[in-house]
Amino acid sequence: MSLLSAEALYAGYGGVDILRDLHLRVEADEIVVIIGPNGAGKSTAMKAMFGLVPIRSGQVRYRGEAITNRPAERMVSRGIAYVPQEANVFPSLSVVENLELGAYVLRGPNGPRMERVFEIFPRLKERRHQQAGVMSGGERQMVAMGRALMVEPTLLMLDEPTAGLSPRLIDETFERIRGINQLGIGVLMVEQNARQALAAADRGYVLATGENRYEDTGPALLANPEVAEMFLGG
Amino acid sequence: MDIAGLSAYAVFFLSLVGIYAIMALGLNMQWGMTGQFNIGIAGFFAVGAYTTAILTTAPAEGRVGGFDLPFGVGLVGSVIACIPVAWLVARITARLRTDYLAIATIGIAEIIRLFFVNESWLSNGTRGIPGIEKPFGLGNNGYLLIIAAFVAVTWLLVEIARRSPWGRVLRAIRDNEPATAAAGKDIARFRRQAFVTGSCLMALGGGLYAHFVGFVSPEAFRPLYGTFLVWVMLIAGGSGNNLGAMLGALVVWLIWSSTEMIAGLVPTALIGSESAFRVFLIGILLQIILVSRPQGLLPEKRPPMPGEKR
Amino acid sequence: ELKVGALLPLTGDLQAYGESSRNGINLAAEEINAAGGVLGEPMTIEIADTQTEPQSGVDAAQRLVSVQGVSAIVGALSSGVTIPVASSVSAVEGVPQISGASTSPVMTDLDDNDFLFRTTPSDAFQGTALAEVAADEGMDSVAIMYINNDYGEGLADAFTDSFEAAGGEVVGTSAYEPGLASYRGELSQVSDGESPLLLIGYPENGQTILRQALEGGHFRNFLFTDGMKSPQIVENLGAQYLNGSAGTVPQARDDTDAAQHFTEAYEASFGELPPVPYIDTAYDAVYTIALAAVAADSTDPVAIRDHLRAVNDPDGEPVGPGDFAEAAELLGNGQAVNYEGASGSVNYDDNGDVAGTFAHWEIEDGEYVTVRVFEPSM
Amino acid sequence: MIEIIQLLINGILLGSILALGAVGATMIFGVLRFAHFAHGDFMAIGAYFALTVVTVFNLPVLAALPVAMLLTGGLAILIDQVVYRRIRRVQPVILLIASFATALVLRSFIQMVWGGSNQVYEAGIQLPLRFGPLTVKPDHLLIFAAAAGLVLIVHLFLSRTRMGKAMRAMSDNMDLALVTGIPANRVIMWTWGIGGALAAAAGVFLGMDTRLHPVMGWTLLLPIFAATILGGIGRPYGAILGGLVIGCAMELSTLVIPGAYKPAVAFAIMVATLVFRPQGIIKGNA
Amino acid sequence: MIEIERISRAFGGLQAVRSVSFTVAEGSVTGLIGPNGAGKSTLFSIIAGALAPDSGVVRLRGEDITGLPTHQLFHQGLVRTFQIPHEFSRMTVRENLMVVPAHQRGENLIHSWLRWPRVIEEDRAILRQADEVLDFLEIGHLRNELAGNLSGGQKKLLDLGRTMMTDAKAVLLDEPGAGVNRTLLGKLADAIERLNRERGYTFCVIEHDMDLIARLCDPVMVMANGELIAEGDMATLRRNPQVREAYLGTGVSGNAGGVAS
Ligand SMILES: Nc1ncnc2c1ncn2[C@@H]1O[C@H](COP(=O)(O)OP(=O)(O)OP(=O)(O)O)[C@@H](O)[C@H]1O
Ligand SMILES: Nc1ncnc2c1ncn2[C@@H]1O[C@H](COP(=O)(O)OP(=O)(O)OP(=O)(O)O)[C@@H](O)[C@H]1O
Ligand SMILES: [Mg+2]
Ligand SMILES: [Mg+2]
């Protein structure tokens, strides 16, 4: 039984299907990457699975349970955490408050959970009282990811976690994602930094115009000349 | 209820609709096109009405004016008098956006109203200015034609403005100010132009109103009828859509005056007070319109591209 | 069939007065119909709400005239609505309009093609009357607070002129804006600690002002105008604080037959007659319209207007509100009548105004008691 | 000097009533991003609910207060679920106009049920306590204490509970709040409940100090907005300060300008604040 | 062309830019790199007139332009894009571009009223220009789509497209590549090169994609902690230990982005 699976999804905005017959699957403990050109529907796919875009037909299952079109706010308590592509922190709240809100659906003290996040992102501990809105691009991504990790998810969904980060931070971020994955958390991410992402991933999907194009292990996709030509910039 | 009577009422009804339609078009320029949240319509409405009252009435004791000038001069005066007022308000509120601007403008409108209440030397204070005549000795029918002509011309001008590159810049400002500035547009200037032009239309409405009812006093410029009604018309009709603004004026004023008949059908024992029930109905109808058609009766359409038919 | 429009504020600021005026109007119509109606048919009343706003007031008036086809209008209450209705509807359509409550001096000279009348005297008279009452009460200095509209300002000005001419002193004057939660600042501004307060306004905010004046210890004695003559004030604030306060109201001599008839008839129909103004004036307005229609032998608006003064022929037979059948018969026989109304003699002058008499009233044991009825000596 | 102090005392009373209204208005603004034009009418209906309790069960006003707060809070939630909820996702201006319609509905409802004339909780007046040359009315002490107590409770709620934090999060970024698993609808209902309850309290106090009348709240709406703006929109603590400043300024203004311009004072302060310190008098961290 | 002289700017206690000076030579494509939070975007905002510096001077062709409002700079030929795309969300993609050209007659309201046919004629030319740009960026099929509905990367392209609607002399690009697919990014680089070569545009580019920087930019400025720490061509900078430490990182995976190609 897959951790998350999407079968034959049709979904879009205002009656127009963006996704057509989309299939996706994430196994427990796996890092899965989605790549594809701009406007391919990658973000839409993430949102649809998370209940933010209505699915017209098809099934989304989480650990075998059908969660198609369930409201987004319920996904979190099931153990799925999602970091959107844009506007992914609460700008006027401090780092600590952002993290606390991440654990909104959980009971019990936040202290230990927050310590664990600080272990992964020590920089957040230094800046814990800073307002998230004025942090630099890289720090914000950490806050966003930290916030998602606060729910102790079993599945983490990341939409372009490295966009706008410096090369050094990109390295570090992939490093961290691998670290998170090693804690037993499944990761599904969209990336434009395709080479690095595929290098870090167990499996990858290539989407174009809302449809599946390729699916393979990360290294295999990297080695595929067609993929490289059309989607990785030669 | 005879035909002649009905048509006389229809003329009267349409005249008020026309006056409100002009104001709704002015508001559409500010809100629908530029996103300026002006809830101070009553202030500009008052400036227009008082200006023509002062210019066109016979001389009177105890106040400035009574210049006995013709109707046309009065209306032009209304619009011109509004320019410095609107410009000043635009200047004062230049940095304000959304609800902040809204609340500032409603405050300014109330200050303008209090000014007319208290400064008798100019406005004859609470007593108001009577004897504002319709032009050329026209009756209601003739005056409706004048109003209709003004509505048509206003609509044409506002519609051209909306389709013009000028209107495009306004819509860009509505969407994203920094990006508009980065595209080389002087946002402050465009905002000011839209605000002043829209306000002048409200003043024009005020001028036409003054000649229509023949009397102005501060009571006419309270927020309910001076401002909110116009907003309700624009929003219900479809903000951003000029035809919608005019349709909204018609429909909302129809609701406003027809609910009396509906309320009359319900036994008083059930509702306590017929008139209160009427206002209750108005509120409910409005909510139904807003909930069922939040984009308005005629939603905004993008202006045609050059060479495109529509 | 005679149709009369009642143009009243049934919602909005003056809603309380609108409802009581409506009773007066309905009462007059019922009596007239009981006495055989007008020109052989029962007359009808069409009611329309002004919402106390000019925009909807003129619309309602036009609807009365055009859609309901009324031959005359009774109303409106506030001058801010009455005047626009007169100049955009009544004068234009040629329908007589009689207000029972608008007191603005502006109406006297209004260019209304002689279609606008009123059954209540202009402020100018009441101001003088008020000064006389102040003198009667032995007040040589007063502070004034008045509602900031044409009614308040008109009265305050007229009072100040007469009062000061008679040697009185006004220790402080402040206009107030309606609807505020506190008038304590204004009160402490006008108060000198001793002088009584002349409060010109309506109960809606007047009650708040009175209460804050008493609670803050600013004033103990009060002088009122017609607008504040309302039993709910005594009821809400407590009689003991208001006993001894005095005021004026336009009122006919209540010893007249007409006034007694009105009071009895009202009480028979609606229960106790509330001591609020503008009921009898509205009542009289309907009567004069009905009589004028009879005199004109027509329900044509212009004909009614032309005969409004004729039903007050000084040489005619005096008739009162209870005598409609007789009056109609006299008129039918071509004889002149002189209507003496519940609110006074209702003799419309060339401007459509009436000269009124005023009552000097006091509050005693929580009741409004008329001390005397008099004609102000201008 | 004495006069000024006396006016200040009066101003603080008026200010605490405004503040209660403004705290609710500012919370609603913070979470839902629109100026709620029916807020004054919530005050009025709260006052009338209390009136019914007072007359039917013959209870003192303060005992009726919690009932009125509860009922008004509930009514606010109901209106939100029936009307506002459906248009939350479109532009805020639609919400604003809809709230204006709500104001009409509430006001006429009051008139239909309770009638249009002045009413009071308790006939008569209250003689003031005298402290030397200063006078204070016993009710005023009560109102002030109750207002302070309510504000304290709201403060604790906002700063100590998860719901309070969730409200701030919602006002920051509603979409992200959803993604974080915050039950947006529940948070919004709480906001309405609290805003409505506080409005009811303000209305009851206003009724105690003046009288009950269908438009009692509507006419106070602009000063309440002025207080909201002055304190910085979306900041409950600012709203309290804003209410007090507006209240005192309005009372003190009678020393220098004609009473007829008194309401203009609140508006002028409001406009000046907007122009010179758009973020409000106390600069928050946003 | 653009001279930046000792520009400083602080936010509260944070010194975002400290006394930075450098020159963007006419006709060059100058890169600006540095870690997140180094102050690059802040510096752009200062040059473009959206933010006032605490001290320092910006010159455009020798003329002092410090503190001039954005729209005036635009008319002197200085255009910028934003790091976070700033589209006109409720306008179509086409309209987004058509707003940009300067000196449109129709932007004068009176003119629109009186000379409508001429305004329309002019607008037609602008429309053609906009469609060309859209086709060039391969988003021509979206021309009538509302810009707010575009995907993240498409918005970046649109932002770039807007700069192509002017006769800009100097263009400031803030991370044109972030979120843009690599294949398209290559084309974007072509476009920048062509504009630079054929039309003589001067560029200053902030970018974290080192391939793009290496391919396009010479010289490259490196900022860290608000200061300029190095400048030179990319090959030199890669060998600079300070730059590696602060920015590039030392790990090999930093090259997995495919510098080799
Ligand atoms: N709210 C919306 N309404 C209508 N269409 C939309 C909306 N959001 C996105 N789209 C359209 O859906 C398509 C897919 O968008 P999506 O955001 O999923 O792309 P993406 O693959 O994430 O691209 P990118 O890499 O640029 O972020 C695009 O063509 C876009 O125009
Ligand atoms: N308006 C502001 N208020 C307070 N601090 C700010 C503001 N704008 C930027 N900063 C701070 O200034 C510093 C520099 O920000 P800037 O956006 O210039 O960085 P950058 O070099 O563009 O980084 P990135 O590559 O992540 O975009 C950051 O630490 C940021 O938090
Ligand atoms: Mg995306
Ligand atoms: Mg940046």
TrEMBL record, chain A:
SUPFAM superfamilies the UniProt entry points to: P-loop containing nucleoside triphosphate hydrolases (SSF52540)
Top-rank lineage group of the source organism: Bacteria
Chain ranges of the ABC transporter domain: 4-234
InterPro entries on file: AAA+_ATPase, ABC_transporter-like_ATP-bd, ABC_transporter-like_CS, BCAA_Transport_ATP-bd_LivF, P-loop_NTPase
Listed PROSITE patterns: ABC_TRANSPORTER_1, ABC_TRANSPORTER_2
One Pfam entry name: ABC_tran
Sample GO molecular function, one term: ATP binding
Keyword terms, alphabetized: Amino-acid transport, ATP-binding, Nucleotide-binding, Transport
Family, similarity comment: Belongs to the ABC transporter superfamily.
Name of the protein in question: ABC transporter ATP-binding protein
Source species of the chain: Spiribacter roseus
TrEMBL record, chain B:
Transmembrane segment boundaries: 6-27, 39-57, 69-89, 101-122, 142-161, 194-216, 228-256, 268-290
Annotated compartments: Cell inner membrane
Keyword Phosphoprotein found: no
Lineage: superkingdom: Bacteria
This protein's record includes keyword Membrane: yes
The entry's keywords: Cell membrane, Membrane, Transmembrane, Transmembrane helix
Primary location: membrane
Pfam families given in the database record: BPD_transp_2
Membrane topology: Multi-pass membrane protein
InterPro entries per record: ABC_transp_permease, LivM-like
Protein name: Branched-chain amino acid ABC transporter permease
TrEMBL record, chain D:
Gene Ontology cellular component list: plasma membrane
Classification via InterPro entries: ABC_transp_permease, BCAA_transport_permease
GO BP terms: D-alanine transmembrane transport; L-alanine transport; L-isoleucine import across plasma membrane
Listed CDD domains: TM_PBP1_LivH_like (cd06582)
Pfam families, alphabetized: BPD_transp_2
Tree of life domain: Bacteria
Cellular localization per UniProt: Cell inner membrane
Residues annotated as transmembrane: 12-35, 47-78, 90-110, 140-158, 187-206, 263-282
Membrane topology, as annotated: Multi-pass membrane protein
Keyword Transport carried by entry: yes
Keywords, alphabetical: Amino-acid transport, Cell inner membrane, Cell membrane, Membrane, Transmembrane, Transmembrane helix, Transport
GO molecular function: L-isoleucine transmembrane transporter activity; L-leucine transmembrane transporter activity; L-phenylalanine transmembrane transporter activity; L-valine transmembrane transporter activity
Family per record: Belongs to the binding-protein-dependent transport system permease family. LivHM subfamily.
Record-given protein name: Branched-chain amino acid ABC transporter permease
Organism, scientific name: Spiribacter aquaticus
TrEMBL record, chain E:
Pfam families assigned to the protein according to its UniProt record, in alphabetical order: ABC_tran, BCA_ABC_TP_C
Keywords annotated in UniProt: ATP-binding, Nucleotide-binding, Transport
GO function terms (MF aspect): ATP binding
Xref: InterPro entries: AAA+_ATPase, ABC_AA/LPS_Transport, ABC_transporter-like_ATP-bd, ABC_transporter-like_CS, BCA_ABC_TP_C, P-loop_NTPase
UniProt keyword Transport present: yes
Database matches in PROSITE patterns: ABC_TRANSPORTER_1, ABC_TRANSPORTER_2
Keyword Nucleotide-binding listed: yes
Positions of the ABC transporter domain: 2-250
Lineage: superkingdom: Bacteria
Cited PANTHER family: CONSERVED COMPONENT OF ABC TRANSPORTER FOR NATURAL AMINO ACIDS, CONSERVED COMPONENT OF ABC TRANSPORTER FOR NATURAL AMINO ACIDS-RELATED
Name of the protein in question: ABC transporter ATP-binding protein
Organism field: Spiribacter roseus
